[in-house]
Specification:
The protein is mainly alpha-helical. About 45% of the residues lie in helices and about 10% in strands. The chain has 2 domains: about 30-215, no CATH class; about 225-310, Arc Repressor Mutant, subunit A (Orthogonal Bundle), CATH 1.10.10.10. Helix 10 (about 225-240) runs antiparallel to helix 15 (about 300-310).
């Protein structure tokens, strides 16, 4: 089964080439992902073109940022045979083509999918991956966050080009602005737009000590179909040979929907109890003798679940 909802090499121990740049300090804006996808569809080498700024209607730094975010979110990929060319992915097509699921990001469900793709992309969005999969504390300070993240990278990647403090600082700032409202009030208009993922309310700013907090609990805009599709992706990636997963795995293991979406136990239970009906018995949640597990009786195509939701 194609695992289109997880980035290549996204297992917790496979850190190939960690990255703290590429976004040019910009979180993505509402129009950027479709703008980048459409441009690549029409002109595969658009990002290497001298006319890219004119085609996309943004400055040169933002051209590079659009390419970065479209790639990190798994909407386009670089053609290995021709490195200057980009190709739309299956996920990009089903979301952003003319009759796609949600080409203008009107449905928060699509934002949850994009958040999932970014935060499971260890190598292209290392800080995002670390924050949602490795960081244990629910609250964090900006400077502590930066140092702990970099220490983890160094422990998992023996040989790599060292990153400067300024590079890490800009990367962490970009991460925070991906999920929190921008404080800028006098910036150029294009730069002051908030990232769409702010809508998900995953991280809130504390009022003291430059602190932030992940918001665990109910996610009213996260549909059961999207949750289930990502659960299947997680299962295939981490435990493909197993026919059952424990509640704890789904709640807190790296790459799990419980971890990525910051669900609490009650919310996760509510989702899992709907699995049997949603999948026509292919997946079933059971609590027996204090053993809480999900059982997989046959494979389920996550794309089928997404098509069922978007209709």
């Amino acid at each position: 089964m194609e695992n289109f909802l997880l980035a290549e090499h996204s297992s917790t121990s496979y850190l190939i080439n960690p990255s703290f740049s590429g976004h040019q300090t910009f979180p993505f804006r509402y129009t950027w992902l479709k703008k980048g996808f459409d441009a690549v569809t029409k002109e595969p080498d658009v990002f290497s073109s001298e006319n890219a700024s004119v085609t996309l209607g943004v400055g040169k730094n933002m051209v590079n940022s659009i390419r970065h975010w479209c790639s990190v979110a798994g909407l386009i990929y670089t053609d290995n045979s021709q490195r200057h060319r980009c190709v739309p992915t299956e996920l990009g097509k089903v979301i952003f083509e003319e009759n796609g699921f949600d080409p203008y990001l009107d449905d928060p469900a699509t934002l949850w999918l994009i958040h999932w793709k970014i935060s499971t992309n260890m190598n292209q969005a290392t800080t995002w991956y670390w924050a949602f999969n490795i960081l244990k504390n629910n609250q964090f300070l900006r400077q502590t966050f930066k140092q702990q993240m970099y220490d983890w990278v160094l422990n998992n990647k023996e040989s790599m080009r060292p990153a400067s403090d300024n590079t890490l600082e800009r990367d962490v700032n970009c991460f925070i602005r991906t999920y929190c409202h921008s404080r800028q009030t006098t910036a150029v208009m294009e730069e002051s737009f908030d990232c769409p993922l702010v809508e998900l309310n995953l991280i809130s700013e504390l009022h003291d000590d430059d602190g932030y907090e992940f918001q665990r609990g109910e996610k009213v805009t996260l549909p059961i179909e999207v949750f289930s599709a990502t659960l299947i992706a997680f299962w295939v990636n981490r435990f493909t040979e197993r026919d059952s997963l424990t509640f704890t795995d789904i709640l807190s293991a790296p790459l799990s929907p419980g971890r990525i979406f910051r669900l609490d136990e009650d919310t996760l239970t509510t989702y899992l109890e709907k699995l049997e009906g949603l999948t026509d018995g292919a997946m079933r949640y059971d609590e027996t003798a204090e053993l809480k597990q999900v059982y997989r009786h046959r494979d389920v195509d996550p794309m089928h679940l997404l098509k069922r939701y978007y209709g």
